[in-house]
Amino acid sequence: MERARPTMKDVAIAADVSLKTVSRVVNGEPGVTPDTEQRVREAIKTLGFRRNDSARLLRTGQAATVGLVLEDIGDPFYSALSRGVEGVARARGSLLISGSSDADPGTERVLALTLCARRVDGLIIVPTDSDHGFLVPEMTAGVPVVFADRPPGEIVADTVLSDNSGGAAEGTAHLIAGGHRGIGYIGANRDIFTARERYRGYRSAMSAADLPVAASWVTMGTPTTASVQGALERMLVGQEPVTAIFCGNNRISVLALHVLAALRQTVAMVGFDDFELADLLGVTVIAQDTEELGRQAAELLFQRLGGDKSPPHRIVIPTRMIGRGSGELRPAAR
Amino acid sequence: MERARPTMKDVAIAADVSLKTVSRVVNGEPGVTPDTEQRVREAIKTLGFRRNDSARLLRTGQAATVGLVLEDIGDPFYSALSRGVEGVARARGSLLISGSSDADPGTERVLALTLCARRVDGLIIVPTDSDHGFLVPEMTAGVPVVFADRPPGEIVADTVLSDNSGGAAEGTAHLIAGGHRGIGYIGANRDIFTARERYRGYRSAMSAADLPVAASWVTMGTPTTASVQGALERMLVGQEPVTAIFCGNNRISVLALHVLAALRQTVAMVGFDDFELADLLGVTVIAQDTEELGRQAAELLFQRLGGDKSPPHRIVIPTRMIGRGSGELRPAAR
DNA sequence: TTGAAAGCGCTAACAT
DNA sequence: ATGTTAGCGCTTTCAA
Q: What SS3 state is found at B70?
């Protein structure tokens, strides 16, 4: 039967009071006789009234909603980040609207602007590598935007990052301390900020130890089984074979494990970003606290919503190395 | 400098036309001279106008938004489901608002009602084990609700499920076919629908093969390392030791792998639900298509939004066994 | 082709 | 303690 939803006006008529009195009861405002309140409550119950929050929010100008744009909600990394954001939002009484950009700048743009059109209170974005100038009008109009995991392109804005270069440097230095001199690096596409940063960390640790890096030791690009296999074969044979590898993200670590298993090869290894079962497999990793990344981004957003006008922040979340064996293998005697 | 956002009225004044003309231009409605349109577009650009969709949606009564309530967006299972829902919603031009219930019926209730108060067009819920009668008024008022992964309590409504019992039966039968006669079952809490169903599948496969099930072979409850370890010790020693185990979900499979590794034990094993690296670890699983679960739930929701008034559906998504070795181990000769 | 008026459901500001 | 009026920013209806 699907009657249209009753409004406060309907309730007011049923309870024979004014609309405003209904509003008072619904919102728990003072100044209503217990008797009238009773009548109103009954009318609410019999009609099945539920306040229309979107009308309320239009009037108050508050959406009580934050928007989140990320690459793919199906990816554990982003879902952990999302969880961090959600926890903070919930604590502040806000809902979360999220959308996946599929790493496409066009989709990201549409999504972000759609969320702004819905008048979310603020936006958290895991940006693609592209120009984010289209957000300037929104930001000027008072919509705070916080970038998470990667900085925005072309503009300066609040950003929360993991210590990508520091973590990669620590992992590489750990391998060096273990006696390795030839260390390969397999990373994601250079278009991606985190990939560049981690590579930078690797290079800095190598040069800090005065170790040269052969061209064949570095592979960066969208990781596939084939590319990782090719990279590993290049690194492990040839005239300057490596004795250890650093994997730039957990997808690469997993692929490398597969390939190494297929090749029946063992090599020292440290991976950036932890993953499930890495402990069981004995993989040493540089863990980043993804949920914390989301939490801090959300906290910063609410700080802005609270009126903080200070210059853009750049928060860096430390990483943590977890030794599990693969990073502690010594170079094989040759 | 945070000017308030300009409205259509502001644009109308700036372009020296009526508000309605602005609306026509913004919405691409016909009946505007190219010349006027030009003036309006300029005003829009200089003022930085963006239509307020929430006001628009209040007027049109359409939210172009679907709500999703699940247990924990940080869990890969739910994020895959979420991805399925999001894909369909996006294709239909809708946004997705989601919230995590943390498996708490109270939170679930608040979240679902909050989303309804926002007047989402429809709701997809991964329900906790509780009474969902509180949703009847909403459903009567015309908000379609689809339950995913588990059926609702106390009410009959559209539901999309995996074939839990069928999958568990298939996995168990596979072990039986491999020569096992003593097969243990470690499952989640009986409060959870999927846990009950999978256990039912296990039992039915055992009795179909005329195999008795010793009391010590079955453990059901919230899985922890300790509980899984206790369960395995009980099953593997004693007078009626098992030669194989069936794990009721992927969390349990992973815990079992850890415990077995610590005990230096090998035992045949099939797990319900696939997980990353299960291939590398050679774990045979009953895979469910979680993303498809979300997709189908969303498709059903949009079907209802399209006006379908047929009786509640119950869609069951088949599972698929993936043999990787652990389920193909033969019972050790004793 | 263009515009004025009414109203979506609610709250804010001001009466009474 | 209760009610009236205006209006959030937009669309709808109807008139010019």
A: strand
How high is the pLDDT of residue B54? 92
Residue-range domains of chain B with CATH: 8-47 (1.10.260.40), 54-162+291-318 (3.40.50.2300), 164-288+321-328 (3.40.50.2300)
Phi, psi for residue B228 in degrees, rounded to 5: -70, -40
Chain A interface includes B179 (CB < 8 A): no
B257 contact A CB<8A: yes
Instruction: List Cα–Cα distances, B328 to A156, A188, A257, B178, B322, in angstroms.
Output: 57, 36, 23, 6, 11
As given in the structure block, the two tokens for residue A43 are 């009318």
Q: How many CB atoms lie within 10 A of CB A206?
A: 22
* Alpha-carbon gap: B52 to the closest alpha carbon of chain A (Å): 5
Neighbours of B4 (CB within 10 A): 9
Q: How many residues does chain B have?
A: 334
Query: Which residue in this structure is represented by tokens 């800095």?
Result: A204
Q: Tens digit of pLDDT for each residue in A260-287? A: 999 999 999 999 999 989 999 999 999 9
Residue B64's nearest CA partner among A97, A300, A200, A94 is A97
Residue A105: burial class (beta carbons within 10 Å; 0-12, 13-18, 19+)? middle
**Order of strands across the sheet with B320-322?**
B218-220, B183-187, B244-247, B268-272, B284-287, B320-322
User: CA–CA separation, A205 vs A169, rounded Å?
Assistant: 5
Separation of CA B55 and C1' C7 in angstroms?
13
Determine the residue of chain A that is closest to B114 in CA distance: A53
B20 CB closer than 7 A to any strand C atom: yes
- Between helices A34-47 and A19-26, what is the axis angle to 10°? 90
- Give the amino acid at B333: A
Query: What tens digit of pLDDT does each residue of A67-113 get?
Result: 999 999 999 899 999 999 999 999 999 999 999 999 999 999 999 99
The pair of structure tokens assigned to B148 is 């995913």
B26 contact A CB<8A: no
Which DSSP state fits A131? B
Separation between the CA of B93 and the C1’ of C12 (whole angstroms): 34
B254 close contact with A: CB closer than 8 A? yes
- Collapse the DSSP code of B208 into the 3-class scheme (helix H, G, I; strand E, B; otherwise coil) and give the result: helix
The reply to whether residue B140 touches residue A72, judged by beta carbons under 8 angstroms, is no
User: pLDDT category, B222, cuts 50, 70, 90?
Assistant: very high
Query: CB neighbours (10 Å) of residue A269?
Result: 26
| Helix spans in chain A (H) | 8-15, 19-26, 34-47, 53-60, 76-91, 105-117, 136-140, 164-177, 193-208, 225-236, 250-263, 278-281, 290-305
**What is residue B99's three-state secondary structure?**
strand
